[in-house]
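Tokens help. Consider this.
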Amino acid sequence: MRKAFFLLLAVFTFFGLYSCDSDRVFDEYKSVSTWNKDSVVAFKVDELDSLETYDLFLNIRNNSDYRYSNLFVITEIQFPYGKVITDTLEYSMAAPDGTWLGTGFGDVKESKLWYRENVRFPEPGGYEVRIKQAMRKNGEVEGIENLEGITHVGFRIEHSAQQ
């Protein structure tokens, strides 16, 4: 009887956790120890339903070695037939008092950052999303060579809330 209870509890826990994230279509992370200004974090996305709309997010994990209150990134979406959409984005990573805006316990915080909403993927085939850091110190032209404190870069696609 006791084994049946624990088995039933495990099944309900699994389905409970799965249903909490039912909007997820794609979710992947890449580890970065020190993010070089020339390093590209790339994600390959298989063909998606061309009739649906999706919301896109960047997920950034940082620790206390990150010395900035914001993050600049350059993103590209490469379409199967060669079209490329490029964006330069800025995200706030900390409040004015220095408190990290992400979630999590201890040293590592995770930030789920809006990238694009209501996006369609009209071309058949796989897409590639590429992300580069574009941080610079105030008054300097050259970018920060090696950005410390970012531990993981993630990309997430969800079913659009507008559907």
User: Anything to note?
Assistant: The radius of gyration is 19 Å. The first strand starts at residue 24 and ends at 31.
